[in-house]
Amino acid sequence: ADESALDTVEYSLDNIRSAPGSRKRKNRKGRGISAGQGATCGFGMRGQKARAGRPTRPGFEGGQQPLYRRLPKFAGQPTGPGHEKKVFNLIKLDELNGCAEGSVVNFDSLLESNTVTKSKYSIHKVVVGREDFTAKGVTVQAHAFTKSAREAIEGAGGKCELLSKTTNAVLEA
């Protein structure tokens, strides 16, 4: 169609139209052979796929053992990149505020003094809590420290001792 004359028209709600050929008529099935989809409506000659309703469920392979049953069940956790995350129990700095000056503080000593409750994780990380850190000159032992927690402890005259994640031995002073 020649659309060169359309460029001069100013469009408003009373004269806009869809482009020619963009609206296709609905296919009326089962309305005679001259309509194109008569008689069997494009479903062929009988059979399961010509019947009403969804022919078979997803994953059905005609009676052959389907793929999802041929493969072994997925058990355990996947390994490899992206599945190596260590989950730490978090010790907040404001939980250390009640410790005496010059004392050595770790999760076990905090548990004995009822400052913290028991944890289901065996490795512990010291993080900054909600309140300010006020303890002076304490030696904190943990498996990991955040950068800001380490700065706060050392800024108050304390020491951070890293522990081995497997043996719990002190790695560095």
From TrEMBL:
Keywords noted in UniProt: Ribonucleoprotein, Ribosomal protein
SUPFAM superfamilies: Ribosomal proteins L15p and L18e
PANTHER family: 50S RIBOSOMAL PROTEIN L15, LARGE RIBOSOMAL SUBUNIT PROTEIN UL15M
One Pfam family in the UniProt entry: Ribosomal_L27A
Assigned protein family: Belongs to the universal ribosomal protein uL15 family.
Location of the region described as Disordered in the Swiss-Prot/TrEMBL record: 1-66
Domain Large ribosomal subunit protein uL15/eL18: 89-161
Lineage top rank: taxon: Eukaryota
UniProt xrefs under InterPro entries: Ribosomal_uL15, Ribosomal_uL15/eL18, Ribosomal_uL15/eL18_sf, Ribosomal_uL15_bac-type
Composition bias type Basic residues, residue spans: 22-31
Signal sequence bounds: none
One Gene Ontology term of the molecular function aspect: structural constituent of ribosome
Gene3D superfamilies: 3.100.10.10
Protein name: Large ribosomal subunit protein uL15/eL18 domain-containing protein
Comp. bias (Gly residues): 33-45
Cellular component GO terms, alphabetical: mitochondrial large ribosomal subunit
Keyword hit for RNA-binding: no
Gene Ontology biological process: translation
